[in-house]
Write a structure and sequence with these properties.
With 494 residues, this protein is of the alpha/beta class. 35% of the residues lie in helices and 22% in strands. Strands 9-8-10-11-7-12-15 form a 7-stranded mixed beta sheet, with helices on both faces. Strands 3-2-1-6-5-4 form a 6-stranded antiparallel beta sheet. It has a two-stranded antiparallel ribbon with strand order 13-14. The radius of gyration is 25 Å and the shape is globular. The chain binds zinc ion. Zinc ion (ZN) binds next to loops.
Length: 494
């Protein structure tokens, strides 16, 4: 529903403030002001999706844009060139840090406010949604005083949050930590943070050369974007520094491929790399209203292949007054690769991709993004549809999987059928249906830490008139303890 303002009587200053307070309260990551030939459309990105927020009438349109430009320190007499600005102020009792960008369009200036909220990263790496298995791997990696640890994923996949959380853990008085960032997204006490300024020639490579003369223990490079930065990162790590950085790739395997494509000495790269954390954000199923439905053949095959378990049903989004279409907040899906000696050798020797894939995923020590995501699906934290949306399943399984291809052909037919039976997949509190869904099936294998113990007390509660499943029965008596998946976690945009 659109937010109404009294544009005739309310001051523009107040309207802008109220919009920002609203955005902060809604946990929005961005506010968009889109000019049309007449009005200004205001939208907010919440949990990764843009949603309509308000329509600003023509008479206020220009003033509102000007007000934002003033508070973000932009030149208000310039409207034909793009500009960048920032707002750092208190809104609704919260300190808010915002980046503002304006872009001249044919209908006027489009302004986007990005809200930087790092309250998440300050809570520490235990709250990042890492499975217990992955968390232990990350803790082991960051305990090594040298090497490169990369966090990978697209923009908005929570990379920075993960990096800041690791830095927070490493931030002790006996360490000299220097970061080079573009932009510095959050200021943390105890860190020496450098802001890149490419307009005066202060780029990543330039700053890094100086940093190495500043006796650092730990270096954080905002992003490895070019060969030169990659080379300096490698050299820094092999001379005894721990280097944290991010790179724009989608999984561990592609990260190695991308790095070896860069102009970096392979034997040095092999030596330097210690770990890769790949990350995605999935919308989190609203625990208040999620329902369950039968799993399709395709879903059964994918889950069987990825996790080695048989499932009958899956959790599904429903929608209630507390969420948006059945989703609320986001959870991180991760893949953590510990670079073994074999993988180091493979990097040095330019091993082909399919062989490298076997080394990376073959020994079962690396849970793929798909496996981590599907576990979170089975545990009711997110939906199968979400995982399908954010992870390329075929890429994950490797090319040429016949069974999967056939299942995929059958999938479109299934989807049509599912849509026709939408009613049948509505939330259920029916004992029989729940039993059918969550009782372990006969030939379930015992691997992947999956324990499908069905909690009968839970079912009794449903019978006594509790409406919907609020806790996943699979989570009980399960190795996936609370620490592994914190259901209260809401990831921010990045
Ligand atoms: Zn809900």
């Amino acid at each position: 529903m659109l937010r109404e303002f009294d544009y005739d009587n309310q001051a523009v200053v107040d309207i802008v403030n109220e919009m920002i307070v609203d955005a902060v309260n809604k946990n929005a990551s961005d506010i968009h002001f889109d000019p049309t030939p007449t009005v200004l459309k205001v939208r907010m990105r919440i949990d990764g999706e843009l949603m309509d927020y308000a329509i600003v009438p023509e008479i206020v349109k220009k003033n509102l844009t000007t007000r934002i430009k003033i508070i973000s320190g932009m030149n208000i007499t310039e409207s034909r060139m793009p500009q960048d600005g920032a707002i750092k102020s208190e809104f609704g009792g919260k300190d808010v840090d915002m980046r503002v960008s304006s872009l001249p369009l044919v209908n006027g200036e489009k302004v986007v406010i990005r809200i930087l909220d790092y309250s998440m990263s300050l809570q520490g790496i235990e709250t990042l949604g890492l499975s217990d298995y992955n968390l232990q791997k990350v803790l082991k990696m960051i305990a090594v005083p040298n090497g490169i640890i990369l966090t990978t994923g697209a923009t908005g996949s929570g990379k920075s949050t993960t990096n800041y959380s690791i830095l927070k853990r490493l931030n002790t008085p006996d360490k000299n930590i220097i970061t080079v960032e573009d932009p510095v997204e959050m200021q943390i006490d105890g860190l020496n943070q450098v802001q890149v300024m490419s307009e005066i020639g202060l780029n990543f490579a330039e700053v890094l050369r100086s940093i190495l003369r500043q006796d650092p223990d730990i270096i954080m490079i905002g992003e490895i974007r070019d060969d030169e930065t990659a080379r300096i990162a490698v050299r820094a790590s092999i001379t005894g520094h721990l280097v944290l950085s991010t790179i724009h790739t989608n999984n561990s395997l592609n990260t190695i491929e991308r790095l070896t494509d860069m102009d970096v000495e392979r034997y040095l790269l092999g030596t330097a790399l210690t770990g890769i954390i790949s990350q995605r954000l999935a919308k989190r199923l609203c625990p208040k209203c999620r329902g369950s439905r039968h799993a399709s053949e395709y879903e059964k095959i994918v889950i069987k292949k990825a996790l080695g378990i048989d499932i009958q049903g899956l959790y599904t989004p429903v929608g209630c007054s507390e969420c948006l279409n059945g989703y609320k907040g986001r959870i991180a899906i991760q893949e953590v690769l510990d670079i073994t000696t074999e993988i180091k050798d493979a990097i040095t020797n330019s091993t082909p991709k399919e062989e490298l894939r076997k080394l990376v995923y073959g020994n079962g020590k690396t849970q793929t993004l798909l496996q981590d995501g599907l576990k979170k699906v089975v545990n009711g934290l997110t939906s199968f549809e979400e995982i399908l949306r954010i992870i390329d399943i075929e890429e994950d399984f490797g090319e040429g999987d016949e069974e999967l291809k056939n299942a995929l052909i059958g999938r479109s037919a299934e989807l049509t059928k599912q849509n026709m039976n939408k009613k049948a997949i509505a939330p259920t509190n029916n004992q029989e249906t729940l039993n059918m869904f969550f009782q372990p099936s006969g030939n379930m294998s015992n691997n992947m830490m999956m324990n499908q113990n069905y909690n009968y007390n839970q079912a009794q509660k449903f019978n006594k008139g509790m409406n919907l499943p609020q806790t996943n029965p699979n989570l009980n008596n399960n190795m996936m303890n609370q620490q592994m998946y914190n259901p209260n976690m809401i990831m921010n945009q990045r």
